[in-house]
Design brief:
alpha/beta, Rossmann fold, eight-stranded parallel beta sheet, binds nicotinamide-adenine-dinucleotide
């Protein structure tokens, strides 16, 4: 089997490779050629940790496997290591034998950023100039960096619940040679695209903070109870997602559905837009919203790409099984 440890991955995985892998697997999901297994997530009663598995099978790419991991809230304070920890295991779909073990931390950030970027490519107005960020934590920097590489934005604006974190966004904008402006939530009216990526359990972005024609990528809500945007915003928008089952149960759509503002049948997998079986944006005034909850197949697709590169350039560790 092939082992690609966490420490090697930043040098092996490019944002472009993540984007290609995620776009392709979203397409396969919508075509019915790839599916995610039910997610397991358990509070293990030790270190306040949440641990679980996200898995799936992509018949087109012949990728089978799972990501095991979760959230250990005391890691950083007690041990100086990051709180999110995960590892991906890949298996030969013909035999069930394990083929690879890949560090899952860095790739999770890149595959999550790739998902919002795929939505921007397929759903944002082509003349979008201003990107607005809600959130300025670890994932937010990956999100904005990937978005700036996907589309020719001219300015970054941002709001964060903890304003002292906003320099994280300013730094990424500066690296891309773009101006950054801190705004209040109504100031997000000026954004053509908004990415939300917070760990909030109450909405920050309200329906009247968003202008007609905006594309919103909601990336932080990945658990029952979390919420970043007002449910009324989903009622105003045309709603897309990575996977309908996750969007309607653990994503932003869970709240709009609970309030009877949206039906699961109103939510379209982004892969349908990629495949051309759904028209996507139909006017410059339409608000589009992508509910990105994060599916196991994203992790597997990106891991398979990493293994290919690591084998090609000789950095992979090979061990007999
Ligand atoms: P982080 O701890 O680095 O940052 C948290 C962010 O949330 C910060 O901007 C913080 O100011 C903000 N925040 C905290 N409390 C808030 C509140 N009450 N109201 C509004 N904002 C608040 O976390 P991170 O690693 O950047 O992750 C952000 C979120 O993204 C988490 O919820 C995580 O579970 C989620 N996530 C989703 C996916 C996916 O595929 N969709 C993947 C990875 C992480």
């Amino acid at each position: 089997m092939t082992i690609v440890p966490e420490g090697l991955i930043p040098d092996l995985l490019t944002r472009d490779a993540s984007f290609q892998a995620v776009e392709k697997v979203f397409s396969s999901m919508a075509a019915g050629d790839a599916y995610n297994f039910p997610v397991v997530r358990e509070a293990i009663g030790h270190e306040d940790a949440l641990y679980g598995f996200k898995g799936g099978f992509d018949r087109t790419g012949q990728v089978l496997g799972l990501k095991a991991g979760g959230y250990w809230p005391h890691n950083l304070d007690k041990r100086g290591i990051i709180n999110h920890q995960s590892t991906v295991f890949l298996f030969d779909p013909d035999t069930g034998r394990v083929t690879a073990m890949v560090g899952g931390n860095y790739l999770t950030a890149l595959r999550t950023a790739a998902a919002s970027s795929v939505s921007i490519k397929h759903l944002a107005r082509k003349d979008a100039k201003v990107i607005g960020m809600v959130g300025a934590g670890h994932q937010a920097t990956f999100q904005v960096r990937a978005a700036l590489e996907t589309h020719a934005f001219e300015k970054v604006i941002g709001w964060n619940y903890h304003p002292e974190m906003l320099p994280n966004l300013a730094k990424v904008a500066e690296e891309a040679g773009l101006p950054f402006e801190a705004v209040d939530l109504p100031g997000l009216h000026d954004a053509d695209v908004v990415i939300t990526i917070t760990s909030s359990f109450a909405p920050s972005l309200m329906a009247d903070h968003v202008s007609p024609g905006t594309h919103i990528a909601c990336m932080g809500t990945d658990t029952k109870g979390k919420q970043e945007v007002e449910a009324a915003l989903l009622a105003r928008a045309t709603v897309f997602c990575d996977e309908v089952a996750q969007s309607t149960t653990i994503g932003e759509a869970q709240h709009a559905i609970a309030e009877n503002l949206l039906d699961a049948s109103d939510v379209t997998q982004i892969g349908a837009v990629i495949n051309g079986t759904h028209p996507g944006r139909s006017s410059d005034d339409q608000i589009t919203l992508f509910d990105g909850t994060g599916v196991g197949l994203q992790d597997l697709a990106v891991s398979a790409a990493i293994v290919d590169v690591a084998l090609e350039n000789g950095t992979a560790i090979r061990v007999p099984i």
